[in-house]
Amino acid sequence: MELYEAIRRRRSIRKYKPDMVPRETIARLLEEAMWAPSGLNWQPWEFMVITGPKKDELAASYGRITEFGFPPAGQRSPAQENFIRWAKTLGGAPVAIVALTPAYGDPSVRKMNLESVSAAFAYLLLAATAEGLGTCWMTGPLRNEKEIRRILEIPDDKEIVAITPIGYPDEEPAPPPRKDQQGKIQWIGF
Ligand SMILES: Cc1cc2nc3c(=O)[nH]c(=O)nc-3n(C[C@H](O)[C@H](O)[C@H](O)COP(=O)(O)O)c2cc1C
Fold first, then answer.
1. Which residue's alpha carbon is nearest to atom 1 within ligand 1?
2. Where are the domains of the chain?
3. Which pLDDT score is estimated for 53?
4. For residue 140, which atom of ligand 1 is closest to its CA?
5. pLDDT at residue 1 above 80?
6. How far is Cα 107 from Cα 85, in angstroms, rounded to an integer?
7. How far, in Å, CA of 65 to CA of 165, rounded?
């Protein structure tokens, strides 16, 4: 798939087919992600690729924190019910990927590392799109970061940057509209 097409076609997918994604495919996507630029070429990323009961625990944790922020059952809108269903199961995705970076260093180093890992994560999502796979960049589960650290045994010297389910899409959501360039871009010297 051509790059511009992948950029436009990538969507946040919140409903997946149960089919397993081959390990070699995920390894290939991560290989592409690791071609992202990184500050000082430190390549400060680590990825956890999770399936099975640990992935289910991760989803359950996101489900709990999502439910906590919504009205009690019976008083929720259909959209809120849908969102909770997605959160509790990660949309039925067979695999989740968690990106980590070192959690130490002065603020400028931490910022540099976060930016580097974010670049790699964006590459990962685009490569997944090119493979016909769905993803959804998520930071919401980090509202319950302590629990995620416990579930995945992530030590405090690693920062959790982002999480995505990955799997074959079982929906084709319409692209959420983008804001126009007005007020977003300053052209200087043109
Ligand atoms: C930093 C970041 C955090 C996000 N966190 C969540 C999340 O916790 N849960 C979720 O369902 N979507 C999350 N999203 C997905 C956004 O809602 C989505 O990208 C946005 O609505 C645009 O839709 P699109 O990705 O289909 O273009 C996140 C996206 C980004 C970049």
1. 139
2. 3-167
3. 98
4. 8
5. no
6. 37
7. 17
Residue 74 token pair = 């019976």
Centre of ligand 1 to C-alpha 140, Å, is 9
- Using CB distances shorter than 6 Å, the residues near ligand 1 are 11-12, 136-140, 175-176
Query: Is the separation of the CB atoms in 47 and 96 below 8 Å?
Result: no
137: CA distance to ligand 1 center in Å?
Answer: 5
Residue 138's pLDDT is 97
Provide the CB-side half-sphere exposure for 47 (13 A, CA). 21
Mean pLDDT, residues 19-38 taken together: 98
| Shortest-distance atom of ligand 1 to CA 118 | 1
Q: Tell me the DSSP string of 86-134.
A: HHHHGGG-SEEEEEEEE--S-HHHHHHHHHHHHHHHHHHHHHHHHTT-E
- Write down the pTM of the prediction: 0.96
User: Length of the chain in residues, anyone?
Assistant: 190
Pocket test for ligand 1, best of 7, 10, 12, 160 (most atoms within 8 A of CB): 12
Q: Give strand pairing partners of 46.
A: 100
Q: Which amino acid is present at 37? A: P
Q: Which residues pair with 164 in a beta bridge?
A: 97
The pLDDT tens digits for 60-101 are 999 999 998 899 989 999 999 999 999 999 999 999 999 999
Nearest alpha-carbon partner for 151 in 64, 34, 30: 64
In the CATH scheme, what is the code of domain 3-167? 3.40.109.10
